[in-house]
Amino acid sequence: MHLKPTADNTIILKSAREIAMMRQAGKVVADVVRALEQQVQPGMTTQDLDDIAARMFAAVGAESTALGYFGYPGNICVSVNDEVVHGIPGKRKLKRGDLVKCDVAARYRGYVGDRTGCFGVGGPEALPAATRQLVRVTEEALFRGISRARPGQRLSDIGAAIEDYVSLHGMSVVRDFVGHGVGRNMHEAPQVQHHGPAGRGPVLREGMCLAIEPQVNLGSAAVRMLDDGWTAVTVDGSLSAHFEHTVAVTRDGPEILTLADNEPHARELLQLVSPQGEKERTV
Ligand code: MF3
Ligand code: CO
Hints:
The chain has a single domain (16-282), classed as Creatinase/methionine aminopeptidase superfamily (Creatine Amidinohydrolase). It is 31% helix and 23% strand. The chain is built from 6 helices and 15 strands. The strands form 4 sheets. It has a 5-stranded antiparallel sheet with strand order 8-7-9-14-15. Helix 1 runs antiparallel to helix 2 (46-60), helix 3 (129-147) packs antiparallel against helix 4 and helix 3 (129-147) packs across helix 5. The radius of gyration is 17 Å and the shape is globular. 51% of the residues are buried.
């Protein structure tokens, strides 16, 4: 449950042409994640969300990379409340105020996009303040991690930035799952931990594409697996949030590949938390 198998440890660098393909795949999964957030309603089942994703994949000729992965039975993963990752879509009915994480990964024209959205059923207002804070901290932690995805940084600088921010808010980063390289395959080298210390691992280079996907618990970081062999839940029953983006390391800094057309919020957030942005704000 901990490791993401890859063909080997070689980090496959992508050309500008390949990154353009990755951007297209990223847009496909971004559109699905956004549609799920917009369409979710109390009373829908997690299977209903899976059906929406499956129809959107089929409409554009994309293929779920989760379906059949080590026998995984869903098109996407839908994890609710204390479920951390890899929840299997099924008959569970969603209620107003549930915290839902939809992990959407698909191959489109030969390249994979991988994004996870995290939202409240009934909208943000349906979530208690502490849950909204968990969601905000997790997304901001992801963006702080992404902002370190620049040539010359070390791989673990990403996880260190994530963990520092989460710890500052008294929450816990799950250590049992990792992010990953992504390209023609969903899981390529390297594995991306979401915790520090900084300054370890390979030096990041232009052309690396990484899926960064911290899971953050309100309580302890410990997780266990349910009897279905897939669903990971928090041991203490506390809520868990999860955001993920696929990111390219470019000479101009990180490029988020899994954005839909109208997401200025994400670009602004990245500016705000980037080391450059931080510097600009202090002068
Ligand atoms: N996007 C998920 C990840 O990178 C893929 C899960 S596929 C599954 O972890 F089969 F493991 F569910
Ligand atoms: Co992933």
